[in-house]
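Q: My labmate handed me this sequence with no annotations at all. I'd like to see what the chain might look like in three dimensions before we decide whether it's worth expressing. Could you predict it?
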Amino acid sequence: MLQTTPNSTKTSPVSLRPQVDTLPFVGTTTWVKAAMHCRFNIAPLFKAAGLDTAGPSPQIRTDALVGLMRDCVAAAAPTMHFPLVVGELFAFDRLPELDTFVATSPTLRHALPALDWVRVLLPTLNLRIEETGSQAALVVEVDMPTDDERLKGCFVECVFATINRIARLALGDSALADAVYLRHDPGPARAACERQFKVPVVVKQPRNALVFPARMLDMPLPGAMPGLHEQAQTAIAQQLPASGHDSLVGAIEHALMSSPALLGQGIERMAERFKLHPRTLQRRLREEGQVFANIQSRCRFQLAVNALKADATDIESLSDRLGFADRHSFTRAFKRWTGLTPSEFRQRERGAAR
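A: Here is what I predict for the chain of 354 residues:
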């Protein structure tokens, strides 16, 4: 899922997708709570937007969602900035496992699949990670039917506020970002953004990005619980709607999990398996916000965890089976993922089983 292209001037994946006219309104409860927090009644605004909240799966037209955001921002002003309140309170009504998945991730890199799941649930958003040397950026693009950059930017601010909350969940009070870059100028709300994000907000930039040190992607997280993390991932996969853009990634993951020998053979062998040129495979993954190395890493981690839970697994042979150059390389990678060596992880699992 990690995109490593240093130059971000290529056409965005969002512009390559068909325009979305209607989408699920996945945060109904959050919007209601945010309105209560901002001291206004959101019910008439829902009605004006044509949103029927009585049904099990509320849907809303994208143009109506834009109008709803505009009206809520106006109703909350000047005391509060509505997008920041929504972001701070946001939770997927029918996917509470998402918070669990992030909170129990061994590293931020292991939490990155959540960006893809958000795109499945909210097809007007594209979130991806880009790495350039020692710096990384979470880039957010919004595809909304409005020419009002500040109004479109409200959705970006909402996403960054949500990411900020999730980061605090995973990292505690540690600062995630060095700065937040925005394409739009939030005007008077800029000061509120800086107070909430606790970093400088730089406006009128070429992209919307939360910039942070790349080393943080592999920093062990204090709440790491691989077993619970795996359970949350399984639960999310069972609940997510089918999505065409997941097919290639899913096929690659299936191939790696079912044939671990492929893990040490690189993207060229995988491209050959799918009858694609390696550059074509890289491009298609890049359009989905993925890179082969991260898919490979996720599969290695899952296979390693599964194997280490079996008492008879030999670590030396396991490292070879997972395509590592030697046991030391495997140990370094596993400790980066979990904060534990393979032997320590096995001992902890055995102790928990008693």
